[in-house]
Amino acid sequence: MPISYATLQIYDQYLTTYGSKRCSRYDTHDQKELQQLYSSIQRKNRFAPVYLNDPTTEEITYAIRLKEQAKSLHETIDVLSCDDESQLFSTKTAYCSHPELAQVSYDISDNDQVASYQKAPSKFTLCVDHCAMPQRNTSSYLRADQPVMMPAGSYSFDLITNKLHYELQFDLQPSDTHEILQQRLMRLINNSDLGVHAQVLHDEDRSALEITSDALGTPAKGSEHFHITDENTSHSSGIVHYLGLNKSIEPAQNASYSIDGVPFSSYNNNFRVYDAYEVTLDPDAISSGQEIEIGLYPDPQSLAYNIRSFVKSYNQFIENLRTSDQQPARLNEDIHKLLNMHKKEIGKYGIEISDDDTLSYPDTEPAATASPGFEELQDFGSHLLKKLNAISMDPMEYLNRRICAYSNPATSYVNPYVTSIYSGMLFNTYC
């Protein structure tokens, strides 16, 4: 059965907008969470009216966009709350004295067997000796426009990793120059997805092929992440020696650093400290011996940071919704009512509501005094989370729909997907 144009549009929308998005911890769910979601769908649709609707491609695209935007804002609030609704906006916030050198976050481990975070200090000094580096093979620098001094024909070489053995084949043309051949090998390696990537380097009128491992740190087995040879290939050999692909090998190394003078090492540039701080180093910016102070903001500053992050994400949520041609009045009305309901409460924290229902928060840092109570702000956050959950559950609720019939409340049969247009929108256009 041919796939409809609308389905292809939905697929393209998802792939280009959300398909490349990195999955977070909020994209996975255990059995209990899935059961709760299923039960929620049942409760919502059991007595819901059945709608007669033929959504357009634009409406379907908007529904998917609406669901994803609600999910994104929900995740932001979760991050600022340590996944505990009773702690909305009260999570502690980490700072870094050199944010251009390292990114840091504070995230207590959920492992009951680990209690090291209880001893995590509010401030410590990180001294970086060197970052984790990949293995890097650099060929000989050859005259870029000079013809290759080898017979034309079919060649091959082996790229050997710790797990697999690959043979890469290519053709050498009589008119190929050194740079043309290096560019061809670069594309061959990169398109093969072998756990390495290649690039052509230039030095005035010379060029070289650089091959770098995707993995950082010293390999678990052996001394190399990969090895290149053409001693036992099925086609002509000699290209490895001619280009010097194994001439200059820079071995991989682990990150080396110290915490308050105590040495540590890591296979990569992302590691946890005291099982509470998440640190990501920038190897292009950090120099050897660089000292970085990391710690926690005082409670008022943490609250200000959390509110500022929330306001930014919320305003982005509103902006993304209103850039679409589909602007349902019901959604705008619901958001407006929610804000007005909590206008006085959130105003105590310096949050102001604009005429277009966006939020603003001053950039000035709060005084390092005791934080105000979180109850009123948490009440607003809890109410907003319920609205975001409702949007995620059924975004089609906010599109114009014609009522066809109401379900029979006396029936005991429950099918959560009968009345949910959103659940099957990928197929209902041609099934």
Q: Helices and strands in order, then pairings?
A:
Blueprint: H1 5-19, H2 31-46, E1 50-52, H3 57-79, E2 94-96, E3 102-106, E4 123-130, E5 134-138, E6 142-143, E7 153-161, E8 165-172, H4 178-192, E9 196-203, E10 206-216, E11 226-229, H5 239-243, E12 248-250, E13 255-259, E14 262-266, E15 270-273, E16 277-281, E17 290-296, H6 299-322, H7 329-341, H8 343-347, E18 352-353, E19 359-360, H9 375-393, E20 402-405
Antiparallel strand pairs: 1-20, 2-17, 3-16, 4-13, 4-17, 5-10, 5-12, 6-10, 7-8, 7-11, 9-10, 13-14, 15-16, 18-19
Helix pairs in contact: 1-3, 3-6, 3-9
Short note summarizing the structure:
The protein is an alpha+beta fold. The chain contains 9 helices and 20 strands.
Task: Provide key terms for this protein.
431 residues; alpha+beta; Immunoglobulin-like; 5-stranded antiparallel β-sheet; 9 helices; 31% helix
User: Main sheet, how many strands, which sense, barrel?
Assistant: 5 strands, antiparallel
Largest sheet: spatial strand order: 2-17-4-13-14
Give me the Rg, rounded. Answer: 29 Å
Separation of termini? 9 Å
Strand content: 15-25%
Give the overall form: extended
- Helix-strand pattern: HHEHEEEEEEEHEEEHEEEEEEHHHEEHE
How many domain regions?
A: 3
